[in-house]
Amino acid sequence: VQLQASGGGLVQAGGSLRLSCAASGRTFRLYSTGWFRQAPGKEREFVAAINWSASSTYYADSVRGRFTVSRDNAKNTVYLQMNSLKPEDTAVYFCAADRIGSLLTRGSEYQYWGQGTEVTVSS
How far apart are CA 65 and CA 4, in angstroms? Predict the structure, then answer.
């Protein structure tokens, strides 16, 4: 599986962005997918996860209520809708996937990673 994240950019505080994670492979619909982010000088942190069927999602406390993860298995794509963005959301965002299928919240649990897409939120 190869992952391609896109949709990052510069946005003002309070604005919105939608990130996309496009995957190759016919079995991607069976993969659990997660979003992580890494701000300058900080460690990578978990943001959100969705299981293979989209029946379960999970969010970091810092984004719950503002971000929504979803997937379109027909398009082999997972999305991260980010609303009410704050300057502290500024980071490089990565998507990751694993064949296990259930919700995974730790980076070490994911086998496949995409390149990052940069999100900058100005105050």
Answer: 25
Give the whole-angstrom CA distance, residue 46 versus residue 70. Answer: 16
In the chain, which residue ranges form alpha helices assigned H by DSSP?
none
Interatomic CA distance for residues 113 and 102, integer angstroms = 17
Interval 45-71: pLDDT, tens: 999 999 999 999 999 999 999 999 999
As beta bridge partners, residue 12 has 122
Q: Rounded to the nearest 5°, which phi and psi values hold at 67?
A: -110, 150
**How many angstroms separate the CA atoms of 71 and 68, rounded?**
10
The answer to whether the CB of 81 falls within 8 A of the CB of 68 is yes
Indicate whether 86 pLDDT > 80: yes
Average pLDDT over residues 92-108: 92
